[in-house]
From TrEMBL:
It comes from the Bacteria. One of its GO terms (biological process) is regulation of cell shape. GO terms for cellular component: extracellular region. It comes from Methylobacterium planeticum. This is L,D-transpeptidase. GO terms for molecular function: glycosyltransferase activity; peptidoglycan L,D-transpeptidase activity. Pathway: Cell wall biogenesis; peptidoglycan biosynthesis. Belongs to the YkuD family.
Amino acid sequence: MMRGGGNADAGGMDEVARLGNRAGLLNRRSFLVGSAAGFGALGLGGCATTDGILLAEAARVYGPMPDEKFPIPAVDVSKVDPKYYRRTVRYESKEAPGTIIVDPGNFYVYRIEGDGAATRYGANVGRNGFLWSGDAYVGRKSEWATWTPPKEMIRRQPEAAKYARGMPGGLDNPLGARTLHLYQNGAYTLYTVYASSEPESIGTGITSGCVGLLSQDMIHLYARTPVKTKVVVLPA
């Protein structure tokens, strides 16, 4: 059972959203403020190499994705603390391989790989007052999803009314390139794990309860996560 004072409010969009500057679209971050193999080569015990090599590897893993429906630019990895780069780590768990574990207190998302290992991704999480914990599962998945603000958000933020019928998928859409929609007992919780294009948000609590990964990390996790996958959100 989820607990905490969180309100997913449009899939984790922040309450202080404002109109964006690009093509008249709502600014993505304002709503949010509201190759495991590659990093696995660095070792399960952490990185034992130089910062220069780590940065070069990060630049490769977080490079541009031009073949996407909406081409994704490279991540400015200088804006991400290296401890949040994707990597394979030691992680003992009784959960089955494939299970997703969210650790909001440390801003990590783990995918259990088995044999004491997990793929670890850096994340942004809910801000104070919007944190929650409990078990859920992936009820559905979507690529370049349409985002629709709820009536409650539109009442607070009239500028969101222009998207009452939905904001089409794209680089400015708050849900990003991939979304895992979290369910409990057959009902959509409004919480998601989504793709963020804001590298400076990783390692911070800025959302209304949703969990954001860098787009490249989210695409990596999404491809390995079937519907019905268990998701465990730990207490912060």
